[in-house]
Amino acid sequence: MKLVSLGRPLLDLELTLNSGQTFHWVREGEGWMGAIGTQATYLEQRDGELFVNAGAASAATNYLALDHPLEEICGTFPSDAVSQSALEFCRGMRILRQPKWEAVGTFITSSMKQVAHIAQISHTLRRKFGEALEWSSKAVYAYPTPTAFAGLEEADLRACALGYRAKNLLAAARLVAAGEVDLEGVARLEDCEAQKELMRLPGVGEKVANCALLFGFERLRAFPVDVWIERVIREKYFEGSAKVTKNSIREFCASAFGPYGGYMQQYLFHHARLTWKKG
Predict the structure, then answer these.
(1) Region of 29 on the Ramachandran plot (φ > 0 left; ψ -120 to 50 alpha; else beta)
(2) Which tops the pLDDT comparison, 75 or 241?
(3) 190-205 exposure pattern, b = at least 16 Cβ within 10 A, e = fewer
(4) Helices first, then strands: H and E counts in the chain
(5) Burial, 66: exposed, middle or buried (Cβ in 10 Å; 0-12, 13-18, 19+)?
(6) Of 140, 122, 161, 127, whose CA–CA distance to 24 is shortest?
(7) How many other CB atoms are there within 10 angstroms of residue 26's CB atom?
(8) Which of 62, 117, 125, 141 is the most buried (most CB within 10 A)?
């Protein structure tokens, strides 16, 4: 098994892969196995040095966003205790560059689901309908293409524990496969217009659109507001006021966290999800 080194970037690999932005990486020995698009990939970090299977170095460098100036990004955030606690907790976490359709489809299936359930759905969809890939005699699966989904029936997806999300995923895949919603075209739009275009897809509301923009289209200003983020902002920045609206939360975050707000969103989300459960 030949591995190549990607150096010692500021990266916490385990933290990044387990932070609720991607859902299919699994432990394999001392590292992680998964797929980057249609590239079977093994990642391992030893004492800060990052290794990847030969042939996947370029894909991994791009996927892990190793070119993001992470120290500079973190230096743009406020110095308040809440922000700094999240930054310290999440040091080395990077926002991944995921394939566009994978980000859209995955977050359509994430609605009202916990991370473990989303991962279970992702693995099932990949095994049943995705392209089989192999590395070192081990099988991994790519996320199914829009065309692969489009040829299915709703019952096929309901059998994967999607529930009502099956109808939305199928309809969205058919629109993308038919070119009625062009994801490459979305990538060329300004943030606001890109969000509107994505929201044409069934199952894509504002939160899912922002997740897709952040994790699949590298719109680092995108700030998805889910139940965790709403709680954090309301309780930590507005003293728990019940009068705070989602719109005022969005306006506050855009002003407070700036052009890299998506990073701060992910840090606040992950920090709250793992610490608030423990009180």
Answers:
(1) left
(2) 75
(3) eeeebbebbbebbbbe
(4) 15, 7
(5) middle
(6) 122
(7) 11
(8) 125
Which residue type sits at 134? Answer: E
What residue ranges of the chain are covered by domains with CATH 1.10.1670? 70-90+223-278
Give residue 278's pLDDT: 52
Dihedral class, residue 25 (left if φ above 0, else alpha if ψ from -120 to 50, else beta): beta
For the chain, the distance separating the N- and C-terminal CA atoms, rounded to the nearest angstrom, is: 43
**Domain ranges in the chain with CATH number 1.10.340.30:** 3-67+98-216
3-67+98-216: CATH number: 1.10.340.30
| CATH T-level topology, domain 70-90+223-278 | Endonuclease Iii, domain 2 (1.10.1670)
Supply φ then ψ for residue 43, to 5 degrees. -120, 140
Q: Which residue has 């998805």 as its token pair?
A: 224
Token pair, residue 249, equals 């939360």
Closest by CA to 272, choosing from 79, 82, 114, is 82
pLDDT tens digits along 169-209: 999 999 999 999 999 999 999 999 999 999 999 999 999 99
Cβ atoms of 184 and 197 closer than 8 Å: no
Q: How far apart are CA 104 and CA 39, in angstroms?
A: 19
Strand partners, 36: 39
